[in-house]
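Let us work through a complete example step by step.
Step 1: write down the sequence.
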Amino acid sequence: MGGPRRHIVPLFIPHEGCPHACSFCDQRAISGEGQMTPAKAAEALRQAFSFPHPADTEIAFFGGSFTCLARGRMEAYLEAARPYLESGRAASVRCSTRPDGVAPDILPLLREYRVRTVELGAQSFSDRVLALNGRGHTAAQIENAFYLLRQNGFAVGLQIMTGLPGETAEDLALTVESVCRLHPDMLRIYPAAVLDGTPMARWMREGTFIPKGVEEQVSICAPILARMEREGIPVIRVGLHPSAELERKVVGGCCHPAFKELCLSRLWRERAASALAGFPAGTAAELSVPAQALSQALGQKRENIGYWGRLGYRVRVSASPDGGAYLAAEGRKIPLREEYKPDAPALP
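Step 2: predict the structure and record it as tokens.
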């Protein structure tokens, strides 16, 4: 699932502007980038725009905490983008920042440089979890920043993280409910990956934190995806963007290059299993799904076929001619619209 895709020219400025060292953070590894400067940004944009781009292209400043930069430094980055905005080769700018980095006095500058979208690194809406992980802001500050941006005409995205140290099922449920209540224009979901050299890695080695692996995080994130689909909130990323540097730094937790596909596959598996439960073991059934979801419904290495087989059902998966999703067996055709709601962790 997800919203309409806009072409983005990304620039990564790891750690710049951020006054905190969060438990999970090594943005240089996350972005796969070294030190960025305004001059390097200008050169990167020159190279990127030496090729044609769609009219709605967005220049994005990711990583770090863009609005926490010194004002002159922030303007220097935005000046690098200005020629492409004025010439019409780019339509707008997006940036990511911390909730406590958004204040009324920064908004005119963002508007001047045609910043259209601001993504807020929320991570959690539990004040206890935020404090434990060194975020340096509160849930109230997330909401204040969100409403300030929304009321001033900006598109607002949120980023959350699952499996943080100290997070309980209740904490995660609070975060999910808060996201649904705010209804951002987009959402990124990051299952926690443990990177070498971070506080989280130290806690893992000391035995005070046991990170959740891929399988456990799929069980957590799949129902969040389903909930967001029901709420109409586009999920534009699930899992960290893979890079060679990231692979070298990961020492635990969840890091998979196709994590979102795993979550979507889990949703198809459980939705079909729920429908199959109404038939006796040994039933042959056909699961029809939209053509673009065929590989997700089958699962990696056809693991969903094996799963349904272990439940006692022979399932064939095919692309539906009408683009719908349904399971057919014994003369019955059951639409698959139900949301996957696992027993644990309990999510609303």
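Step 3: interpret the result. The chain has two domains: 8-257, 268-335.
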